[in-house]
Amino acid sequence: MDFSLSVEQQMIRDSARDYLAAHSDSAAVRRVTEAGPAHDDALWRAMASELGWCGIALPEAVGGAGLGAPGLVLLQEQLGQRLACVPFWSTVCVAAPLLQASLGPRGSAQWLERLACGEIRAAVVLPDNGGWRYDGVAMTAQAGADGFVLHGNAAQVADAAGADWLLVPARLEDGSAALFLLEPVAFAGDARFSLQPLDTLDRTRTMAALRLDGLPVSAGALLARGDAAAQGLAHAWWHGKLMLAAEQLGAAQQCLDLTVAYASERIQFGRAIASFQAVKHRCAQMMVLIEAARSAVYGAANAWDDDDSSRARPDIAAASIAADDALRFCAQEAVQLHGGVGFTWEYDPQLYFKRAQAASHWLGGAGVALDYIADVSQDADSEPGAGRTA
């Protein structure tokens, strides 16, 4: 598979890198997070209105650029490198594909148009067990007189605080799948609806706990049900997993860049520590893991667009594992190679170390990906003729 970037893709990557370096640098991230978990509203408005990033992967028919997963991973990589404090992953990488897959091209158009222009910030209540199947969905829905009544709790919902739309997968009384759209502002003051912001380890991505205690919603809140809703959740979960890996890849790259810059300036025994062979070897190992993860992420993105998305799942699982390993190793090495100041608040490695620890648990982390690969391998081995040589 050819992983070389087109001229258009290179322009996306380079322009995003330059813009975020200027508008989501360390000082900007710290300003946003010092008061607690929050979003950079100015950056989000610029991304939505000036840069058009929210529609980069969406079809042109709904106002997008139609560049698909390969274009989006390049942008996600740069956002991850700068720890941009915006609800981009939850809105563009999870909510949009959930609506696309659940409602189809025609049914989703009116919703996607609003997402493409950045008018709406969306969050999705993903299964608590880190999987993509509906048996892990925490919410239930019962038919009521004028609609439905929702029950359930979700311990952590990414970017839910401040979201305009909350997409809630739920199980109906007959066990079938359903997808509801809630507008949190409509339930302000309702004791049956609780969305409590959480103060987590990584303040660059907001989390909130959701509780629905017999919340009545109208029949119009139901967007999809049955197989369409179930398949939509799986589609969005795997797409989100891929884009999370791209974020981790970008964060790992920044760990290496910070380390090389510091090692080139830090003088010990009369010379920069970057000249020491031991430091060179450790930086080289960081680079090897990053490049392996980059190949895996780019390959999975191409597979997602080239094939039926379900066939790309093994590639996404492998990319997720590679990106998780790269970020955790590089964040740890960045702290160590910065010496005595590596863990202090004034230096940036601690921000990336926290992201590495938090991201390793999102969407089930590497554990869910490894389990999936093991299951797929077992199924392949059990097929007639498996393991035979020609």
Automatic annotation (TrEMBL):
EC number(s) recorded for this UniProt protein: 1.3.99.32
One MF term in the entry's GO annotations: oxidoreductase activity
Enzyme class: oxidoreductase
Domain of life: Bacteria
Domain Acyl-CoA dehydrogenase/oxidase C-terminal span(s) in chain numbering: 239-375
Swiss-Prot/TrEMBL cofactor(s): FAD
Acyl-CoA dehydrogenase/oxidase N-terminal domain residues: 8-119
SUPFAM superfamilies given in the database record: Acyl-CoA dehydrogenase C-terminal domain-like, Acyl-CoA dehydrogenase NM domain-like
Keywords: FAD, Flavoprotein, Oxidoreductase
Keyword Oxidoreductase annotated: yes
Similarity comment text for this entry: Belongs to the acyl-CoA dehydrogenase family.
Name recorded for this polypeptide: Glutaryl-CoA dehydrogenase
